[in-house]
Amino acid sequence: MLIAHFRGPEGITVEDDAFIGPGAIILPNVTIGRGAVVTAGSVVSSSVGPMTVVQGNPARPIATCGVTLGEKTTMGQFLRSLRPLKRRPPAAAAHST
């Protein structure tokens, strides 16, 4: 679902070779970068960089991909190209002693 009908000039840009999973919601003033992947059910409220996989509500980057998820790429090729991003600990856990 693309939500781009709020007041003002906001819009949504989906660049080449981007993949948006079923049930994802893309909010106004967001760009989905070239080759980016938005996983199913994610809610995207800020722009997604090229070749980045995002997930969740709100959507957060979880990996980078080395190939695009498209017609010419098998799922195996895509999965082998993924490079997980290091997760940051929650703010509360980072400050606990």
Strand order of the largest sheet: 2-5-7-8-9
Tell me the series of helices and strands, N- to C-terminal.
EEEEEEEEHEH
Sheet of most strands: 5 strands, mixed
* Secondary structure: helix percent: 10-25%
SS content category: alpha/beta
Radius of gyration: 15 Å
- Shape assignment: globular
Q: Are there runs of 5+ residues with pLDDT below 50, and where?
A: none
**Strand content of the residues, in percent?**
25-35%
Q: Provide the residue-averaged pLDDT.
A: 88
Explain what the structure shows.
A five-stranded mixed sheet has the order 2-5-7-8-9, with no helix packed on it. A two-stranded parallel sheet has the order 1-4. It is globular and about 40 Å long. It has two helices and nine strands; from the N terminus they run E-E-E-E-E-E-E-E-H-E-H. The mean pLDDT is 88. It is of the alpha/beta class and 97 residues long.
Summary keywords:
97 residues; alpha/beta; 5-stranded mixed β-sheet; two-stranded parallel ribbon; 28% strand
List the helices and strands and how they pair.
Blueprint: E1 12-14, E2 19-20, E3 25-26, E4 30-32, E5 37-38, E6 43-44, E7 52-56, E8 59-64, H1 75-81, E9 83-84, H2 91-95
Parallel strand pairs: 1-4, 2-5, 3-6, 5-7
Antiparallel strand pairs: 7-8, 8-9
